[in-house]
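Example pasted here:
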Amino acid sequence: MNIIRNCLYALLITAVAALSSECEWSWTAPEPPLPNTEYWFYSWDSTSNGIPPVAPTYLRGTIIAQDISGPTILVKCHLKANANDVDVFHSKHADKIAGFKHLKQWSVVKLKPGNTMDDYKKSQLFEKVQRNNSYTARDTIPYDPELSGSWGMFKIQAPQAWDRHTTNKTVIVAVVDTGIDYTHEDLRDSLWIGPYGEHGYTCTNGVVTPGGEESWFHGTHVAGIIGATGNNKIGVCGVNWGSAGLLLSISIFTRGVAANTVDAVNGLEKMVDLKRAGNNIRVANYSWGFSDAELNGDTLLAEACQLVEDAGILQVCAGPYNVDADTIVDVPSGLPIPGIIAVMASDEFDNKAIFSGWGATKMHLCAPGVKILSTKWPNSGYFTMEGTSMAAGFVSGVAAVLFDIYPNLTPAQCKAILLDSNSLDYISFTTNSTHGGRLNMFKAITNPKLSSPPPIPQPPPLILIAPQDLRVAQTGERLTLSWSDTALGEDRWLVERRTKAKGRWGPFGKIASLPVDSRSEVLGAIAGQYEFRVKACKEYNCSPYSNKAGIRVK
């Protein structure tokens, strides 16, 4: 799409579009110069003397940030700011600018040498001026996999919940992180697939491109907690382990480098676009954050999170490290948005993790976050990590299961169920959170406040059909019995034989109980006349008998 900055381009009236005096980006939809690209934007810089060229220069990306290298700031125009005044101000202080698709009052500004953020703060044209904040993933150094296992799943009673629900066929979880390893043996079947075969989007350096590949390892670990494939006899399984094709990767980090406000906002805007396009994204996991003791926060990211909230997506956030969240501004976990859940970390003994932050008014609940075994990048491995990042993954997985079972739940209702007293295990340290409890998956999905708990699934009907085509043949001193298997669900075969003596048949008696994979039996050949029959059995249930097969042994 073509994006035109109204407050900057007042002089370009007829060549591009009819321009307003209000300080917003407006959007039109030209034909892009190259195929298979989603966003195309108008570029401006100081070399054009504040006047855009008549023939727009199209660049790929959500914003024109590939033209904005070096330090940047973020500014929000007053809605009724005069466009000419804003244009003149930018011409004096900025080398390049760029904008956002949905948050149209905001701009990314690269300052000219010698200019500072204070120049913009002193101006009356802008209602908000802030840094392009740096965000970090919330984990600590990985542990060796031999040190731990999947204790967290048992702590939240996931196996009991899985007895009732495993297959998520509808709910997409967006993992906004460092990416996901789409080749991992335990994740490749769980990934969302877009129209061009992409598994997500990479939102870095101001550009949004199809991809979402792992760039560091953190996102792959979190994704495994949420939805690694279960019951496949390899590796680990996620909380929401039946989520085939439903993990969406939104990568906002570059390898070894923190994310920033611009890339995070681009990722959230892209996620909202995908939701509006019909993808059933109900949960977004943010295992990263920024703690600001100066209480400045991040207004732009807050507006982006509100955009996600308005799109009907529950946002699960990792809490801060070893700090009282009530005394600082933690973003995004501490944002005053109803659909955000802030997660603390606990250990296997239900103690607060030594690294976890707390907050009686800002943190909502805790979940396992110490020595958590999950998927590793690269090479399809497994290892343990710890952090509030991991704890958030557990909560996101349970939220996805709730949305799948109860698709009419709103994000606010899902949050209320997760934090309800009937859904939590109470532990001592969580008096330092708003709801004082640790996540319990089984209690959450069977919470009596839901319209109806998921039923306990009944086993499929047992279909034990009599074996067919029983035959017996003699080879030397051996008899060989063989038959065709037409039963379903059997666990063994019972072979019976009777003998004819003095012209009369005796009763059948069991001579063998064979494993289910058997289809024949070899017996010693003793002179006499015999008949055999076979039936399929499971526990105390058995099929009718097969046909009888007789033989005279001389």
Q: What stands out?
A: Residues 388-405 form the longest helix (18 residues).
